[in-house]
Each structure stands twice: as C-alpha cells, then as structure tokens.
Write a structure and sequence with these properties.
Helices cover 20% and strands 32% of the residues. With 173 residues, it is an alpha+beta fold.
Length: 173
C-alpha cells in the first residue's frame, strides 16, 4: 500500500511541475500570437523629384530640355553628353552653365510641372566619317532643392539616400 501513495504523490508532483512549466511559457506564446496584426490602407511616399528628358535632333544639333514631372518638390537638373572621342559637342542655351566633369547645369530650380530652357548640343563630326554610324547619348540627373547655411536654395549633387531599418542601420536588398 505504501507504494501506491508514494506513486500518487510522485505523479501529483510531476503534474504540478508540468503545469507550472506550461503556465510559464504561456506568456511567451501569448505574446507571439498578439504581436502580429494586419492593417489596411496605404500611402505613397516619394523621396525625391522625378524628371523627364526631351530631345529633338535637327541639323546635327540635339535640342534638350528637362521637365520636373513630380507632384511636389522643386529640383535642380543637370545634363551630360557621352560620345565617341572623335566627335565634338558644343553647348549653348539660355540659363545653362558649364560645370565640372562635363555636366551642364540649369541655373534655376524647377517647380513641379516646369521645364528648363532648351540646351543645344551641336555635334561636330570629323570629315569622312559616315554620319549614320554614331550615337550621342544624353543623360540627365535631378537633385531635390535644399537650403545652404545662409538660407539660399541649392542642390546637393553628392547626397546619397538610403533606406534604414528601425535601428537606423542601412537596409540592403
């Protein structure tokens, strides 16, 4: 008889221990199931200006203009032509100025919907060169309007925008 009572006590102690273990883990399990929720709705976020380049060609001249197509936010723009070293490109356009590394900068910020004046890029082709066998590629870039220490509008062409996670660390794709 003694053995049956001690077996019952041992079984009861084991059941209590198991119950306490399950109860202690219940909080963590409950937290897991309540941390994840669903949400509805969305909001589009635009981190910068968007622009569109317009090019027309006549008499070996590219006529270039840029339009700020973003809904909000002014921006500055610049263009650069890439071409075979045997060619020359001469630029001319009201409001445009030559800058570093072959870029041409438009002097005024473009509000949404506004366009630059025309920048003419006259292409010089060496004699004897077949004019059908070359390409001059024009790229354009834009930078959002920022203000310098004196409160003047300017562009930061070296700015790099990255996504960050909740700890402030860069997110990589």
């Amino acid at each position: 008889m003694k053995g049956k009572k001690s077996d019952k006590k041992l079984f009861a102690a084991a059941a209590v221990a198991l119950g306490m273990t399950l109860f202690a883990g219940l909080r963590d399990v409950s937290a897991y199931f309540t941390t994840y929720v669903s949400a509805g709705g969305s909001q589009v976020v635009r981190l910068g200006a968007q622009t569109e380049i317009h090019e027309e060609v006549s008499q070996m001249t590219k006529h270039i203009s840029i339009t700020n197509t973003s809904e909000t936010g002014a921006c500055f723009v610049r263009v650069k032509a890439f071409h075979d070293s045997r060619f020359t490109v001469d630029y001319d356009g009201a409001g445009w100025t030559a800058g570093e590394k072959g870029y041409w900068y438009y002097g005024e910020a473009l509000a949404p919907g506004e366009s630059t004046g025309v920048l003419d890029a006259k292409i010089g082709v060496p004699e004897g060169f077949d004019r059908e066998e070359f390409n001059v590629v024009v790229i354009q870039e834009c930078a959002p309007l920022v203000y310098d220490a004196d409160g003047n509008p300017t562009a930061d062409w070296d700015a790099v925008y990255t996504d960050t996670d909740y700890r402030g660390e860069e997110v990589r794709d």
